[in-house]
Model the fold of this input.
Amino acid sequence: MTTLRLGVNIDHVATVRNARGGARPDPVRAALVAIEAGADGITAHLREDRRHIRDDDMKRLKASISKPLNFEMAATEQMLDIALSVAPHACCLVPEKRTERTTEGGLDVVGGFGHLKPFVAELGRAGVRVSLFIEPETEALEAAVALGAPVVELHTGAWCHALENGEQARGAAEFARLSAAARKAAELGLECHAGHGLDFDTARLIAGFPEIVELNIGHFLIGEAIFVGLAESVRMMRKAMDEGRAAAGDA
Ligand code: PXP
Done:
């Protein structure tokens, strides 16, 4: 079995900081604690409205952490300039609507092909590993290949929401869709990540897909940190992922 990396998204540490202004809690400190507790990388989303992470956070994260920084961003000229100056390990291109509470769907890689192409190319030329946040669909995977992106991140939100709402049949259908997409991604030679809305239970389950090599998890981990502390929240997630991976290996 391939190892499964945990990318900890620290956006919502910045959300809490921004609720009062000032500097605390500091997302960079959270990143360092998460790494110490077993995170394999740190993810942060610089949104156009700067509602959580800010430009300076990205620079400080890049300067302070010893593990890869995954910079989530919309495909805009302004974000491209910032990403090129921060020079993170990876960039995950995500769709962004100003009115949404979080990233609600995957990128329209088919309809937005022409728009995305120069962003993928320019980031790639700069040595940044480009990932596309997509719905678990064959057409999206094929478009990712045609765009030249080496990585895709499958949007797990629909599956997680179905389970949260007790919609078992829809949950099973979404799980099957994710499973098929993970297999297809590997077949197409894409590195496959997944994320959005994951908690201990869903991370344990999706860890069973051998094609998936990285999970990016934020909101749930920061929420759990209120009760058990961030380090313990990350350790518990790592344990859930390892259990899920091992159980699938035994199956
Ligand atoms: N992956 C991507 C591409 C995202 O946009 C987000 C949310 O910022 C996440 C993962 C993490 O989602 P969550 O905060 O629900 O764990």
User: Anything to note?
Assistant: The longest strand covers residues 129-134.
